[in-house]
Structure to design on (479 residues):
């Protein structure tokens, strides 16, 4: 055979563990040696690196090889083994069809020539393909079983170590700085903060992800929902046991956060949300109307925000946003520091209700485990197992929704008393507004015509809600 015989080399490796394409390079070298022995001229080389044929993912270079064959540009194909070309019967039949019509010869380093122009050659190719498919499926089963076994024992299954831990001598150890960020995000979520606000906070403070990247909503959501945070091990979304990773939060906290984050009614669009702390909460001291936000162009292309009474005419309140927001925030912090105030906002009934719901959820999951064991032991049928699972899952969904509602009904958790300011800063705008609304009615009196246009605390009055204090006391007189 002369060197006018044009051939293509196809190389593929499923997983490039070394990350340098060395596997496909070795395949190409072996294939070129075969071409040299046969006297074939290598016209093109097609390489799909780190792509599994069994996975079903599109292999761009393999598709290009087929098009090259259909165009009559080559007369032979060389591969390291037939399983490099195909691990799917459907792919093999397409390859056989193209090869048979155009008389294309296939040579392999390991299996020799595959003559697809004859019935016996096609039978050999189909047999090799069937065994390759079997090996792929068998390997997949082994990997799946291994992952399940690792999950059941709580062992680390490989891959990147999650944010919050590091590996020392093969054992997971908590990274305290990262763990503190996880606890802060968990507390903020339970307190009503949005995932978006947590993303903004982490990135603003320069806290990177485990991979050194900026946080996204998806990354924060995954971090909040990770069972490892509570020392739990999961497989395909189901808790299967304890993890070898030491817990950063309690199981109760994780269950509460999971119920909140996965709640179908949780809003994901923030465009319609109030964006200013006191919008609609500040009251005009002249007419009693709720004040709205407004803005004016400031220096350096920035906008200055104001609160103003919507009632037209003179004598109504108008106030720059920043100083009054800071004043009201400090007033709230002072109030929360007073004995008994947080306990009142925490709502003992709701806290008890949370614990009851969490215990109910644990009991329902235990019943699922019992049913699964009974099915495995042959004590119940598959139909009975399906009916039990359906009923329990339905109850679990209801409990999760109630748990999310109970968690959100607690305005200020009891733990906030340890550091009120830190809790306030991580609570998020919605929860801050809810606390203000629960504690007080802030009132702004209009500026007198003769008064200088500077912020005057004397114009800000507070009506405290249901606490028996002076109901219209100026902030300056508060003690």
């Amino acid at each position: 055979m002369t060197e006018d015989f044009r051939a293509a080399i196809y190389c593929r490796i499923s997983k490039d563990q070394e990350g340098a394409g060395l596997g496909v390079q070795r395949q190409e070298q072996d294939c070129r040696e075969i071409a040299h022995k046969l006297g074939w001229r290598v016209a093109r080389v097609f390489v799909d690196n780190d792509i599994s044929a069994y996975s079903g993912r599109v292999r761009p270079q393999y598709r290009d090889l087929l098009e090259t064959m259909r165009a009559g540009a080559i007369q032979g194909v060389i591969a390291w083994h037939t399983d490099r070309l195909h691990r799917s019967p459907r792919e093999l039949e397409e390859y056989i069809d193209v090869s048979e019509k155009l008389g294309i010869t296939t040579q392999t380093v390991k299996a020799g020539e595959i003559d697809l122009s004859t019935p016996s050659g096609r039978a050999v190719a189909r047999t090799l393909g069937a065994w390759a498919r079997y090996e792929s499926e068998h390997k997949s089963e082994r990997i799946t079983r291994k992952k399940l076994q690792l999950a059941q024992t709580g062992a680390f299954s490989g891959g990147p170590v999650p944010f919050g831990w590091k590996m020392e001598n093969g054992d997971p150890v908590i990274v305290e700085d990262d763990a503190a960020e996880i606890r802060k995000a968990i507390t903020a979520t339970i307190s009503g903060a949005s995932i978006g606000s947590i993303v903004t906070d982490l990135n603003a403070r320069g806290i990177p992800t485990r991979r050194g990247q900026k946080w996204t909503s998806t990354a924060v959501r995954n971090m909040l929902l990770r069972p490892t945070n509570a020392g739990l091990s999961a497989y395909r979304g189901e808790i299967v046991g304890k993890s070898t990773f030491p817990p950063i939060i309690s199981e109760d906290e994780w269950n509460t956060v999971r119920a909140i984050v996965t709640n179908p009614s949780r809003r994901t669009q923030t465009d319609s949300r109030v964006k200013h702390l006191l919008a609609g909460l500040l009251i005009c001291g002249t007419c009693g109307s709720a004040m709205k936000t407004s803005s004016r162009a400031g220096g350096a292309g920035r906008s200055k925000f104001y609160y103003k009474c919507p009632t037209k005419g003179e004598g109504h309140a108008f106030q720059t946003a920043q100083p009054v927001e800071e004043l009201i925030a400090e007033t709230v912090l002072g109030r929360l520091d007073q004995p008994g105030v947080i306990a009142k906002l925490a709502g003992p009934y709701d806290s008890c209700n949370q614990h009851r719901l969490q215990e109910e959820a644990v009991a329902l999951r235990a019943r699922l485990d019992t049913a699964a064991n009974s099915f495995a032991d042959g004590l119940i049928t598959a139909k009975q197992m399906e009916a039990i699972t359906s009923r329990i899952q339905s109850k679990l969904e209801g409990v999760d929704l109630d748990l999310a509602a109970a968690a959100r009904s607690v305005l200020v958790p009891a733990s906030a008393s340890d550091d009120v300011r830190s809790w306030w800063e991580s609570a998020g705008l919605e929860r801050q507004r809810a606390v203000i609304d629960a504690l007080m009615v802030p009132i702004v009196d209009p500026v007198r015509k003769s008064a200088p246009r500077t912020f005057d605390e004397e114009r800000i009055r507070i009506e405290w809600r249901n606490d028996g204090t002076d109901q219209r006391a100026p902030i300056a007189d508060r003690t």
About this structure: Residues 16-21, 267-272, 467-473 have pLDDT under 50 and may be disordered. DSSP finds 15 helices and 16 strands in the chain. The longest strand covers residues 41-49.
